[in-house]
Amino acid sequence: MQTYPTTTGRTADIVRTFMARTYSWMSAGLALTAGVAFITAQNYGLAVQVMHLRLPLMLAQLALVFVLSGLSQRMSASLAGMLFIAYAALTGLTFSSLFFAYSPAAVISAFATTAVTFALMSVAGFVIKKDLSVMGRFFMFAVIGLLVAMIVSMFIHSSALVLGLSVVGVLLFAGLTAYDTQMLRNLALSGVTGEHAEKAAINGALSLYLDFINIFLFILRIVNGGRR
Question: Residue 93's closest CA among 116, 67, 59, 68?
Fold first, then answer.
């Protein structure tokens, strides 16, 4: 007697496929960022040029984030993918300075701690039953508040303040990781398929990538004792 997959089974397959695709894009972005940062740091002449172009590079990164976040559903999946890869590569260029500002041990320790924190919060966001969508507005205002506080801290030059903001930053983006993961799971449950699913996976990968990067930067400051 031939059996057919249940609706629940098909839904689970769709969710699993979508999430796997999202994390594949995110992992590829992180790997590219790490590779470009390491290679750039090994070439002192290139690293110096990148430092001189740091502001334009950061503005280009910001522009790509806005384009991908706001227009990804209006462009082809291949273009969205190329823009995400370009963003990851640009981030790698600017991150090359971390190898000069921090010790290799601090960078490795921060990355390992970030990977564990991100994995735990992402799993929590996927399996938790409580609806986290109500937290969306809170996270938005919290990120804005944190950004303002970080700008103020640049003029105060207090290691204790930077350390405190770094702890808040880790907690905030850890929560955002769980929130974004649940939102992506819910999106997959809605039945998104085809090219729309691919573009949604790339956009979701960008959100998770940004969560990971921010957790890493804040943990790196904590490992460094609150010093920039």
Answer: 59
Total domain count for the chain? Answer: 1
pLDDT tens digits, one per residue of 18-58: 999 999 999 999 999 999 999 999 998 899 999 999 899 99
CA 83 to CA 64: how far, in whole Å? 7
Closest CA to 163 of 181, 150, 182: 150
Which tokens sit at 198? 């691919």
Residue 109 lies in a domain: yes
Residues 143-164 have pLDDT tens digits of 889 888 888 888 887 788 888 9
| Residue pair 160/215 in contact by the 8 Å Cβ criterion | no
The pTM of this model reads 0.89
H or E stretch covering 196: helix 194-223
Which SS3 state, helix, strand or coil, does residue 191 take? coil
For 122, the token pair is 């992402």
Residues in CB range of 70: below 8 A, 6 or more apart: none
